[in-house]
Every structure is written in C-alpha cells, then in structure tokens.
Amino acid sequence: MRTTLPIVTAFVAGFVMVVAFFFRADSLIGSLRQEFTVWLTIVGGFTLLLGVVSIVRVNWLAVERRKEGWRYKILTLIAVFAMAIPAVLPGRWWSGFGRGDGSLYDWLFNNLQSPMMATMFATLAFYIASAAYRAFRARNPEATLLLLTAILIMLWRVPMGEAFLELLPGDVPQWLNTYVMNGANMAVQRGIIIGAALGAASMSLRLILGIERTYMGKS
Amino acid sequence: MSFWQKMDQLDRRWIYLTVAAAVILPFLLPTPLPIVITPEARSLFDAVEALPDGCNVMVVYDYYPTTIAECEPIAIAALHHMFRKNCKVITLSNIPYGGPSMAERITRMMGDQYGKTYGVDFVNLGYKYGYVAVLSGMGQSIESIFPTDNSGTPLAQLPLMDSVKNYSDISFIFEIADNATADYWVSIVNAQYGVPIGCGGTAVMAPKFYAYVASGQFVGLLGGMRGAAEYEKLIEIEADATVGMQSQSLVHLVIIGLVVLGNVGYWVGRSQSKRRAA
C-alpha cells in the first residue's frame, strides 16, 4: 500500500495532465486538470514550509552542539524569524505586519536582503576578471577560437567596444549578431533545449509509469 | 624574474583594484556613449508600440534580487513604455525570493509617476508556488490560481480584474527573467495560448533566448544592462542602464586587456622556457 498508493496517485495525476491537453478547458477532464493545478500550488506551499522547518532544525542543532561557525547560525535563525514572522501575520493587526509597502518584511527585504544578494553577485565581476587573467589562455586552436570570439562578443556588448568594432573594415557588429549569436550560439542552444526537453519528457514518463520511484525515498 | 614572469604571477588584489577603478571612474567622469540598437531590442519595442492603447498586459518579475542591476532597469523601461500607452498592467512573480516585493515596489513607484491607481490601472498578483502549475492554471482562470493579490485583497474587489479572467484577456506578456522560467512561458503560455511574449533577461541568459526569438516565440529580446540601455534609448528616457553602460564598457575593456596581458605573459614565458631547454 505504501508503494502502490503513491504510484497510482502519480499515474492518475500525470495521465490527467497529459490527456487534458486534448480536451476543451470547460470539459470534465479540463476542470479536473485545473483542480489538480490548484492542489499543486497548495501542496507546493507546504514544501516551502518544510524548507523553513529544515533550515531551522539544521541550524538549531549546530548551535546546540556548538559546531564550527555556530554564532553565524544564530544570525541565520534570527534572520529567518525576523523575515518570516512579521510577513505571515495579518497586516490589519498592525501596519508593520504582512508583506505590503512599509511592512517590516518589506523594509528588511529592500534594505538588507536585496543589497546583500546584489553585492554577492556583483563581487563575481572581480573573481571573473581574476579567473580570466589566469585561466583564459590560447593554449590550442580551439581555445584560441573561443578566446577571440569571447573578446569580440565582450566588445560588441558595450558601446565603447562597439565604437571600436565600427572602425574595423566591414560590419563586424552585424556579423557578430548574425553569425555568432544567431548562428553558432543559437544552434548550440537549440541542441541543449531540445536535449533537456527530451530528458524531461522521458523522466515524466518514467514517473507516470511508476518506473522512477526515487521520489518515494527509495530506488 | 623577468617582467612577464612577474605579470604571470600578478597578485590578484591588483586585478580587483583595477576592476574597482574601472567601475568607479565613469561615475566620477561621466562620458556619454552612443548606444546602437540591436534588431532584437527594436522588434520588442515595436511589438509593445503596436499594442492598442489601454490594453491589458502582464509584466513578470522572474528574477532574484541578485540580478537587480541588470533586470530592474529593464522592468522600469518596460513600465515607462506601457504606462505611457495607458496599458493596464498585471504583475506577478514565480520567484519566492523577493519577486513579489520587487514587483510591488517598482510597479507602485512607476504607477505613482504616471498617476495610476492600484486596482484600476495595475495589480500585483504576487507569488504562488510551482511555475508550471501557475502558468498552465492561469490559462483557464487567473482567479483560481491567485484568489487574492499580493496584499491579500480578493481579486473580485479589484476593478481591473473584472475584465481579466485568463490569457485570452492579455494582449502581451513582458517576461523579465534571470533563470529558466522563461522556457515555461514559451512552452506553456506562448505555445498553447498564443500570447505574444517579449523577454528581458540577464546577459548570461540572453544567448539561450536567441533561439526563442528566431522561432518567433519571443517577439524580441533585451540582453542584460545593454538591452535595458537600448530600450531606454528607444523610449527616449535615459536612466540607470544608460549610466551603467559606462562602467560596464570600461570593465569589459579592462577584462579584455587583462586577458591579452595574461596571454602575452603566457606565450613569452613559454618561449623563454623553450629557449632555456634548448
């Protein structure tokens, strides 16, 4: 029963979602599909809750056992509660609750979380520059081709570089857009997109047919 | 130790310092640069321009706060254009990490600027888990997926949502993404419901989206801050992206210079060691 029920549920849900594509939205199966979709968003909401419980549990255990960096974990726990609790309390109780404009959550998000995340991402520019300096070498013909293409694309993506490319004979920016971005790049991206879609389709089939069972916590 | 050997072992802190200088310098010495419009940005602008005034559009904030520098100028430029055309804007996000907050802040800021009223001219639906379910569910009924807006007001109490029930009431979707949710807007919303979609993405994601532009599944594309600067030029409102392009220009040139320097060092060092071995 513990195995059969999840497999049957996955089969019915997957089958309905696939078959509903061939039916009108106002048909019985179309309505069923819509119902399943709403359920999915509700169940998904609980998975977010599970994430919060998990992060609290992991960090709390680390603090309790005084593991390395436990002081930072206290900060993580404070941050989780400071963001989550005022956000889930109704705004009609106090204007600081909820997620609306001027709420505590909104203030913390705009003034702490958002700048911190943006800063973390911005520091990548420094690491990329350092890594490019040390690792981007023309060691063989393939690497040289990649290097030259990358330099041309980097020039093309900024006005200063594009002004420089305009000085070269022929329409280099136009050439880059047509042959590199809409040619070689697009061919490769299409291959990746089609490959990923085929992989997703095959995984979905395996789930619907009960071949893939790792979602139940065992192979 | 020769000069090139020294360069080969250059302390990375010098590299960081050079990049920092390249970022800061243009803010101290601003130098306006000409921005050339790519065909992808032009076609996106033309598609929005061709929309009937006052139509319903969706602006989707599918990006994390990490990519604010690239994506926020795109969102602001898009809203300038749409509010200028008196479009009714519905925003939502498939990103739990601050997406609804960014949508709320930016849309309200732009709405205030154009004298728009919340609930009448624009609505923020917020976030719901599961973008595949959300995207396909809205095809039949937006209200079944988002019974309330971001602040908990039932959609029935928002006048704009009286005329917007599903995708058939939406004329255009402006997707701003730094991740793979854009793929689902293509495969679910454009492919199955035929709603035209324009996309603004980070520079890293943009190469992938070229395939969707070529297939007509995206009407146009803005790639990163450069794309935002192009759109700013097209709507004739020069803002953050246009200013930011100066720093980005210089940083790109610095990185290219460093790569060239690193390669020269590598080749000189290699020929020296070959000579010594001989």
Structural features, described:
The complex is a heterodimer of chains A (219) and B (278). Chain A is mainly alpha-helical and 219 residues long. Helices cover 75% and strands 0% of the residues of chain A. Chain B has 278 residues and is of the alpha/beta class. Chain B has a six-stranded parallel β-sheet, sandwiched between helices. In chain B, helix 8 links the parallel strand 4 (172-177) and strand 5 (197-201). Chain B is elongated and about 80 Å long. The model of chain B has no long low-confidence stretch (mean pLDDT 92).
* Most strands sheet of chain B: 6 strands, parallel
- Poorly predicted runs of chain A are none
Number of strands of chain A: 0
Helix content of chain B: 40-55%
The assigned structural class of chain B equals alpha/beta
Query: If you compute it from the alpha carbons, what radius of gyration of chain A comes out, rounded to the nearest whole angstrom?
Result: 26 Å
Radius of gyration of chain B (Å):
23 Å
Largest β-sheet summary of chain A: none
Structural class of chain A: mainly alpha
- Assembly level: heterodimer
CA-based shape of chain A: extended
User: What is the mean predicted local confidence, pLDDT of chain A?
Assistant: 90
Q: Termini separation of chain A (Å)?
A: 17 Å
What coarse outline of chain B follows from CA principal-axis ratios? Answer: elongated
Largest inter-chain contact set: A-B, 63 and 75 residues
Termini gap of chain B: 19 Å
| Count of strand segments of chain B | 6
